[in-house]
């Protein structure tokens, strides 16, 4: 049986570490880390995510605030708010929830957040730092993927890693982090030929394609470590809705370890956001 990597437990442990860091900063006379979340319009899923993020801040002692703006907010007003937050010494992390309404240029908005407060790690400066291995803030889900891998792998050097999916938010940053860890990295995508063959050589597979149960048992080398970033809601045989990942979980029990969906990568993302906020708060206070 493959080891089931317990994302919930690993996220809890990271939260405890983050809380201890917050307590240490406050005891040392530094400002308590502060995260601000901006939500424009009324998107059901975004509201749930924002509520979870705010609640998670409370648990570890991070100050949080929310800016809820109407869907017809002008781009100019949004940029003015971000400019104000960029200058606010109590705010160390700024997260502007996406998707934004169509009349707003998302790339421009994300670029307007100070790279030092960009706890999502989406700003081109942070993307550049990551791709050159020169620090900066690492996007939350890729950081979570690396922590989960680190829970079962001691030495990454020379391992064959296959990343399925080339998104800016997951695939590309994960590939950069694996390269920094000295893996040999192959990034595959929808036009990749012979994907099963490529996957079969991998010591590590990170599946982030958003394609339910794409990775079959026959694609997986015995002893490989599998991280499933996909999460899709489908109707099961019993007619009930269920969440499935990009990996056919029941078929990969010959792997060394695999993350479940739910309970794998998902819980790590918010824990990494909190860790990034503390990192930003420390860096901003010298
Ligand atoms: N929307 C869904 N996930 C995220 C995220 O991690 N960051 C931002 N800014 N928006 C999101």
TrEMBL record:
Gene3D superfamilies: Leucine Dehydrogenase, chain A, domain 1, NAD(P)-binding Rossmann-like Domain. GO terms for molecular function: methenyltetrahydrofolate cyclohydrolase activity; methylenetetrahydrofolate dehydrogenase (NADP+) activity. Its EC number is 1.5.1.5, 3.5.4.9. This is Bifunctional protein FolD. The lineage of its organism: Bacteria, Pseudomonadati, Pseudomonadota, Alphaproteobacteria, Sphingomonadales. It catalyses: (6R)-5,10-methylene-5,6,7,8-tetrahydrofolate + NADP(+) = (6R)-5,10-methenyltetrahydrofolate + NADPH; (6R)-5,10-methenyltetrahydrofolate + H2O = (6R)-10-formyltetrahydrofolate + H(+). CDD domains: NAD_bind_m-THF_DH_Cyclohyd. The gene is folD. Transmembrane segments: none annotated. It comes from Alteraurantiacibacter aestuarii. PANTHER family: C-1-TETRAHYDROFOLATE SYNTHASE, CYTOPLASMIC, C-1-TETRAHYDROFOLATE SYNTHASE, CYTOPLASMIC-RELATED.
């Amino acid at each position: 049986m493959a080891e089931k990597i317990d994302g919930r437990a690993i996220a809890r442990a990271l939260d405890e570490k983050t809380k201890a860091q917050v307590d240490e900063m406050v005891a040392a006379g530094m400002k308590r880390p502060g995260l601000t979340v901006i939500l424009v319009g009324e998107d059901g899923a975004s509201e749930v995510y924002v509520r979870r993020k705010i609640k998670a801040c409370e648990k570890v002692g991070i100050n949080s605030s929310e800016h809820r703006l109407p869907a017809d907010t002008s781009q100019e007003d949004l940029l003015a708010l971000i400019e104000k937050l960029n200058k606010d010494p109590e705010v160390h992390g700024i997260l502007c929830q996406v998707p934004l309404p169509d009349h707003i240029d998302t790339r421009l908005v994300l670029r307007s957040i100070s790279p030092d407060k960009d706890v999502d790690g989406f700003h081109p400066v942070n993307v550049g730092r990551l791709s050159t291995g020169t620090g900066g803030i690492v996007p939350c889900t890729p950081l979570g993927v690396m922590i989960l891998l680190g829970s079962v792998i001691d030495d990454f050097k020379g391992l064959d890693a296959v990343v399925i999916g080339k998104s800016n938010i997951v695939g590309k940053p994960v590939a950069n982090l694996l390269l920094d860890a000295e893996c040999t990295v192959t990034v595959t995508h929808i036009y990749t030929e012979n994907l099963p063959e490529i996957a079969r050589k991998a010591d590590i597979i990170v599946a982030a394609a958003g394609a339910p149960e794409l990775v079959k048992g026959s694609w997986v080398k015995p002893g490989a470590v599998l991280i499933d970033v996909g999460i899709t809601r489908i109707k099961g045989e019993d007619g009930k809705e269920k969440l499935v990942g990009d990996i056919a979980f029941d078929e990969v029990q010959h792997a060394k370890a695999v993350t479940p969906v739910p309970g794998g990568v998902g819980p790590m993302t918010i824990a990494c956001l909190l860790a990034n906020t503390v990192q930003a708060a420390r860096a901003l206070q010298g």
